[in-house]
Amino acid sequence: MHLQETIFCATAPPSSSSGPLGAISLHDIQTGASLASFKQTNAGSHCTAVFQSKNTQGGFMLSVQPDKSILNVYTFQKDQISLKIVLPEKLCCIVVDRLGEFCAGGTAQGRIYLWEISSGILYNSWDAHYRQVNVLRFTNDGAALISGSDDSGVSVWSVSRLLDNDLQNELPIPYCTLSDHTLPVTDIQCGIGIFPACRVLTSSVDHSVKLWDLASQSLLTTFQFPKPISFLAWDVTERMFFAASADGSIHQMNLFRQRDSKFGGQAIEAIGGAGVTDIIRVDDDSREAKKKRLISVGYPISSIAISLTSALLLVGTTEGLIHSYDIPSHQLLRTISTHKGLSITTIATMLKPPDLIGHISLELRVGAVSDLKDTIPPKPIMPFQRMRDPKTRDAHDVSMLLPNQNKTYHDEATAYTTEEFLRDHAFFVQPSLVKSTASSRGSPDAIMLKSQVSELESEVESLRGQLVKAKGVNDTMWDTVVQRLVVQDKDKEAAGKDGEDEEGQRRRKRGRGN
Prior knowledge:
This protein is of the alpha+beta class. It folds into two domains: 5-395, 7 Propeller (Methylamine Dehydrogenase, Chain H); 458-500. 23% of the residues lie in helices and 33% in strands. The chain has helices spanning 159-163, 287-293, 372-375, 390-395, 412-415, 418-429, 431-441, 444-513; strands spanning 5-12, 22-28, 34-41, 48-51, 60-64, 70-75, 83-86, 93-96, 102-106, 111-116, 122-127, 133-138, 144-149, 154-158, 176-178, 185-190, 199-204, 208-213, 218-224, 231-234, 240-244, 249-254, 256-260, 266-270, 279-281, 294-296, 301-306, 312-317, 322-326, 331-336, 343-351. The strands form eight sheets. A five-stranded mixed beta sheet has the order 16-17-18-19-25, with no helix packed on it. Helix 6 (418-429) packs across helix 7 and helix 7 (431-441) packs across helix 8 (444-513). The protein is elongated.
């Protein structure tokens, strides 16, 4: 099955008019063609959550209805509502963690509910804020829940404390409270990393976007914009983020910049990080810099998102248009106008689900299309409890997905025979023992070792013979040189004596003559 990125969007009629019902739709990100549509929903901003199909489990979509306390549940295998869940009260926002285990919802009175999706158990419900909860986000590892409210506060909640049975009768205490905004919080984006070693972006009506460090529970940098910020989109590598205003302007903020190095080259450095006093004003830049970092859509913006490859910026408008911009050049590449007359309340990108209705891959299993449910069963979802029930929580009846019986599973432990297992164990744990046993059994390793030893012994013998020959040659040369030197010395001595005798005889003859 080929991986294909798709656009996930939710639509709803504008608040000023009572138009047709909205829908949840999937589009091809390259062509804009419609892949699937799930109707009968009017979810507003931050009121749609999706869990992607993975690990041989089908995904699901949750959609909160604004006019009643109803939660619509959809699966990718069916274009109709799979389940309607009656909620304790109307929800203003909803979120699902990455593993699809927990769902959290916020209300207009500042209350937050936390359910387990597989069992429907209401684990906790508490008054988290004084005013409406606008946005909820889980960290990437699902260990913390972050909430933003109209009371300008951002609270970070530890999920483990919210699930603790011993703390059910106590009011939950947040891990930390980020309280530097002065007006309602509009959006939250969580960075990469596990909690608390991660950073968080928050936007507000007070024209600011703030970057927080959860490990130190401190404010790193404040970005001040000329207009209120309603939506955020953060690059997965945390190199930049986009801040969108409702009037149609989108600012690109780079978190790294180039500077001239002392050695004549270019260096990359991070901007900001000085704390509360570090304020970066976007409107202080020159006109050319503004043009490079500003995208003017021309329509009121209702949602934004960055593609999985960080190459495209997707913008949803209140006119029902989806614009696709190239991030490096800010060029408008494509506009999807399928949802004219509706507002794009939610937009995101995801891989095309393998169990998407009408787009079934036959590579998943050899068989008919009707057997798809047996191949990829949807993740189980139970109706959510409206009140906390300690007995149900203690029983904890959770639906689980058993392994697919159609696929043959080989256990590595049982695939070994006893003899092979003992031999391999001895090879790694007792090398000396395996050598002795191998030599005694005449295994191929022992035969090879013997041949190598015989080759080495023959090579040693030949080297010894060559050494003996070389030594003999050396001795012969030494004897020859010594003998020649001795003979030459003797000849010189003899010649000297003969010369002395002749000289003496001449002297004697001269004496006699005188």
